[in-house]
Amino acid sequence: MPKTLEGQITMEKTPSYFVTNEAPRRIHSMAKDTKLIVVVRDPVTRAISDYTQTLSKKPEIPTFEVLAFKNRTLGLIDASWSAIRIGIYALHLENWLQYFPLSQILFVSGERLITDPAGEMAKVQDFLGLKRIVTEKHFYFNKTKGFPCLKKPEDSSAPRCLGKSKGRTHPKIDPDVIHRLRKFYKPFNVMFYQMTGQDFQWEQEESDK
């Protein structure tokens, strides 16, 4: 990590840290006062998105349905498949809480980051002890991508949007598979809500459809 001067904050982003067993211990031994920000989203949508990303690089891989089950007839989910294992957030958080207090971890809702980016960014800035510089005027919604883009209100430069790897169209998944995945994740989600003191309302995804 680069040296940080007084009044500066150094940030680093690696999504795999959250699911890597050795990461909490290593980060704690390097800087135990580090503040951690974790962006989480509905684990079912996350798994499909993960699969979509892999599919774009390896079109020959089996279907999502084949990879998601150990036994389709019995409805046994294959929790060893990384696309599914990553979404068992409670399991990974347990590991981090052995080293860091909850007060040093901010959980950002991936859903609200799309629907209300300024609101989520306000929480991030508060958590980091920063003035709320980034506000509604810094965002505009890109309908093509389905994501907000970042713009600088003070100049006319082109807004910064997410790259080509984001916003891909997901393959159509059998509704029964999605229903089984929701049942699989539900107890883990409830545990995660209890551990964080936040209700991300992922169960409502199903009742809304």
Automatic annotation (TrEMBL):
<comment type="similarity">
    <text>Belongs to the sulfotransferase 1 family.</text>
</comment>
<keyword id="KW-0325">Glycoprotein</keyword>
<protein>
    <recommendedName>
        <fullName>Sulfotransferase</fullName>
        <ecNumber>2.8.2.-</ecNumber>
    </recommendedName>
</protein>
<dbReference type="Pfam" id="PF00685">
    <property type="entry name" value="Sulfotransfer_1"/>
</dbReference>
<feature type="binding site">
    <location>
        <position position="41"/>
    </location>
    <ligand>
        <name>3'-phosphoadenylyl sulfate</name>
    </ligand>
</feature>
<dbReference type="InterPro" id="IPR000863">
    <property type="entry name" value="Sulfotransferase_dom"/>
</dbReference>
<dbReference type="InterPro" id="IPR027417">
    <property type="entry name" value="P-loop_NTPase"/>
</dbReference>
<feature type="binding site">
    <location>
        <begin position="166"/>
        <end position="170"/>
    </location>
    <ligand>
        <name>3'-phosphoadenylyl sulfate</name>
    </ligand>
</feature>
<keyword id="KW-1015">Disulfide bond</keyword>
<dbReference type="InterPro" id="IPR037359">
    <property type="entry name" value="NST/OST"/>
</dbReference>
<dbReference type="GO" id="GO:0008467">
    <property type="term" value="F:[heparan sulfate]-glucosamine 3-sulfotransferase activity"/>
</dbReference>
<feature type="disulfide bond">
    <location>
        <begin position="149"/>
        <end position="161"/>
    </location>
</feature>
<feature type="domain" description="Sulfotransferase">
    <location>
        <begin position="29"/>
        <end position="186"/>
    </location>
</feature>
<feature type="binding site">
    <location>
        <position position="49"/>
    </location>
    <ligand>
        <name>3'-phosphoadenylyl sulfate</name>
    </ligand>
</feature>
<keyword id="KW-0808">Transferase</keyword>
